[in-house]
Amino acid sequence: MIQELYFDVTVIGAGPAGLAAALASDHEGAKTLLIEREARLGGILKQCIHDGFGLVRFGEKLSGPEYAERFIEQLPDSHVEVWTLSFVSEIKREKNESLLTVITREGMKRIRTRSLILATGCRERTSRQIGVHGRHCAGVLTAGTAQYYTNILGKLPTKRCVILGSGDIGLIMARRLTLEGAKVVGVYEAKPTPSGLMRNVSQCLWDFDIPLQVSKTVTRVIGDARLTAVEIASVDACMCPIKGTEEIIPCDALILSVGLIPENELAESIGVPIDFKTKGAVVDERNETLLRGVFACGNALHVNDLVDYVSESGEVAGKAAASPTNRSRGLVPVECDQSLLYVVPQRLCRNSEEMERVFFFRSARDMDNATLTVAKGEQVLFTKKFAHLRPPEMERIPITLSKKELDGNLPLRFHLEE
Ligand SMILES: Cc1cc2nc3c(=O)[nH]c(=O)nc-3n(C[C@H](O)[C@H](O)[C@H](O)COP(=O)(O)OP(=O)(O)OC[C@H]3O[C@@H](n4cnc5c(N)ncnc54)[C@H](O)[C@@H]3O)c2cc1C
Asked: What is the mean pLDDT of each run of 10 residues along the chain (418 residues)?
């Protein structure tokens, strides 16, 4: 007979989002369970041994493990029940509650929970997802895997590598591998501008004389058992390789930093509607999805560039999940045009008592002297000027909106103009 346990709030994933969510839920007095599949808490922060975390929240430059520790150390003083080495393999919905199947070291367990928080993080795009051709040889790995080998296992995965994609993890690994004695031949980016934060381009590449080659991509991997070289080519404005520009670069590893995708298999399995722009759940300002009692936060909701905002989104979800309401939300859609990549939340509760709502957005392209306009039909509700906007840099913006301004069925529309 499989044991069934009840919790008011269950959080899946103990990265910074899940840790903050569980502590916030406990703080509100809810009986809270935190489930993590790995042996240690902290999520991806465990392997991020460089500093730069926590500047917004703590005004300090912490390493990933130090940042995670600020939350982990609060757990013994809380009532949060923590299960590590426990994997949520299935979720079912029953009468507005969620039923979880959890594989633990003691065997399979069933959890019935009133509120469920999905804090499952994100995963990296692989070579197959970006159409890199060639043999399945050893030596093609994601930047996160290279980070895990180097920082957790203490094993250097390459002596001479090419990094494809200029996402933040790739930039950080270019520096890390260089410090460990590997040769990073260059970072190659198909777009005309880098995908990562400018502070990382400066601190991780320029400070170490690592070349950044934009408008170039890897067209082929070469090698039998192990990678021996990659073929690089320039690309045109449509990112198609230009014939005749190919060059072969000898190396023993191709490290990919080509994007992160929110981890949402569990959410999709219970029918949580997903935003095709963020690849995360559609949520209201309390981070509740369109399925009542199911919340999402952190990188499972949308890929964040600052961990401080990840923790904030966990806290919002944890607080809301601990005090659920059956009252109709009166949801108002929030939309953006092509000048933005996305905006979160994608819905607002018309019936909420809170007037200040926090939005996160990214511009669709680099912009100088841009004005953000938030309008409802013809009525402009909010404007703000930005000196610079870049897609890799997510913007956080609180906007005060009255109940009257949210009346009616028209969506709120976000627009940017240079
Ligand atoms: C490889 C990698 C490296 C990164 N490096 C940096 C960096 O250097 N600097 C930076 O600012 N940001 C970095 N990021 C971004 C980073 O993900 C966020 O800053 C932050 O850690 C996200 O927090 P999270 O809690 O949403 O997700 P995570 O930290 O990814 O935590 C999610 C947790 O959920 C658990 N989980 C998932 N599914 C299940 C399940 N079914 N059952 C039980 N547990 C489950 C996972 O094991 C994990 O512990 C990196 C991301 C990745 C993927």
From this structure: 91 98 98 98 96 92 97 98 98 94 95 97 83 79 96 97 94 97 96 89 96 94 94 92 95 94 95 96 97 97 94 97 84 95 95 86 95 94 95 93 86 95
Q: How far apart are CA 415 and CA 322, in angstroms?
A: 34
Domains, the chain, in order of start with CATH, read 1-124+259-322 (3.50.50.60), 126-258 (3.50.50.60), 330-418 (2.60.40)
The H-or-E segment that residue 405 falls in is none
Q: Which atom of ligand 1 is nearest to the CA of 307?
A: 19
User: Strand pairing partners for 112?
Assistant: 6, 99
Could you tell me the two tokens for 372? Answer: 């953000």
Count how many residues are written for the chain: 418
Cis peptide bond prior to 65, omega within 30° of 0: no
Atom of ligand 1 nearest to the CA of 144: 1
Between the CA of 96 and the centroid of ligand 1 the distance, in Å, is 28
Ligand 1 pocket member 264 (CB < 6 A): no
Distance CA 320, CA 246 (A): 54
Name which of 364, 336, 345 is nearest 301 in CA terms.
345
Name 123's Cβ contacts closer than 8 Å, sequence gap at least 6: 260, 261, 263
Using most ligand atoms within 8 A of CB, pick from 67, 120, 171, 297 the residue to mutate for ligand 1.
120
Ligand 1 centroid–CA 313 distance in Å is 14
Q: How many CA atoms lie within 13 A of 249 on its CB side?
A: 26
Q: How far apart are alpha carbons 315 and 302 in whole angstroms?
A: 15
Q: In what order do the strands lie in the sheet with 379-389?
A: 347-349, 331-336, 412-417, 367-376, 379-389
> CB–CB of 182/159 below 8 Å?
yes
Whole-number Å distance between alpha carbons of 280 and 382:
26
Q: Is the dihedral of CA 31, 37, 40, 42 positive or negative?
A: negative
Q: Please tell me if the CB atom of residue 68 comes closer than 6 angstroms to any atom of ligand 1.
A: no
